[in-house]
Write a structure and sequence with these properties.
The protein is α+β, with helices and mostly antiparallel strands. The chain has a single domain, classed as Roll (Pnp Oxidase, Chain A). Helix content is 26%, strand content 30%. It is built from four helices and ten strands; from the N terminus they run αββββαβββααβββ. The strands form two sheets. The protein has a six-stranded antiparallel sheet with strand order 2-1-5-6-9-10. A four-stranded antiparallel sheet has the order 3-4-8-7. Strand 9 and strand 10 form a beta hairpin. The longest helix has 16 residues. The protein is globular and about 35 Å long. The chain starts with 11 loop residues before the first helix and ends with a strand.
């Protein structure tokens, strides 16, 4: 496991990308290495990038949540729709909790950002709201400290580990 205690894993630019609120696809796997994935309906990142939370619908992401609970492993791809600028983070010790009223400002901010981001590629607000709609009592917050990070922007560096910030 990389030593992230002494040096940041994510650069300020990557933290800003995640913080802005871009497309986030969450994946995990079961003991047989079968992958599960689901779109997040919200994201939060700490100012230093050391802690990330993604929000998943319990009713739609049951397998992902079951896999994260069983293995602690999670991978999230954050991608800006218009530019395809993409970063992937992985963690080994994710924690689950029910979302609560205190998460609503983050969820609303994420939805507003995604309305703008997805709108830039030609989809209207009703589409985005249908895609990212949620009931608060159905949401689970998946929080983790990134252990690895990769540049996944299409091009010659795709798949390469991010240098320590």
């Amino acid at each position: 496991m990389p030593d992230t205690a002494s040096r940041p894993l994510l650069s300020p630019e990557h933290i800003a990308l995640i913080d802005k609120g871009v497309s986030a696809i969450v994946a995990s796997r079961n003991a047989a290495l079968r992958t599960s994935l689901m779109r997040s309906v919200g994201t939060r990142v700490s100012a230093d990038g050391s802690r990330i939370t993604v929000f998943l619908s319990r009713s739609q992401a049951a397998q992902v949540l079951q896999d994260v609970a069983a293995t602690g492993q999670v991978a999230v791809v954050f991608s800006q729709p218009l530019s395809h600028r993409t970063v992937q983070v992985k963690a080994r010790h994710a924690e689950l909790r029910a979302a609560d009223e205190g998460d609503l400002p983050v969820l609303r901010r994420y939805l507003a950002s995604m309305e703008e981001e997805v709108g830039a590629v030609g989809y209207d607000v009703p589409f985005v709201r249908a895609m990212l709609g949620f009931r608060l009592d159905d949401l689970v917050a998946v929080s983790f400290t990134p252990a690895e990070a990769f540049d996944q922007t299409p091009g010659p560096k795709a798949g390469s580990a991010l240098p320590a910030a």
